[in-house]
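Quick question: who can interpret this fold?

. . .
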Amino acid sequence: MTGEISTAALRHNPLNAVTASVERVTYADGRTAVRKELRAPTDTTGPWAASRDPRHWNYWRREVEVYRDEVLRADLQDAGLLLPQADVEEQANGAVLLMEDIDGIPGTQFGLVEHAAVAWAGCRVRGAISTFGCPT
């Protein structure tokens, strides 16, 4: 996209070695997007270290792979979870995600109802892609 006129930093964990930045981008025509810069691991020590191992909880390419996986996107949508559209730009030392900016309630403002809905949808997705089912 061209015509970027401003950016505003968004809340994220600055200690997490995977995330370099998260910001809302505003374009001249009024559209907005969310840009997230991901870093490949350089130091693999510490509680928030990034990893190259896909099984690690802080695998640095997980979001890149999720946004490129159309089957997962469809499974999430079937479970009631919307994954924003995203362009992925690979770079030498990481990647940049330019994601659709979606209106909604930020997770930091979730109440019990929102947490329960996400947990149930996550269970439905997990049930669709594994042998485990959801509690009834």
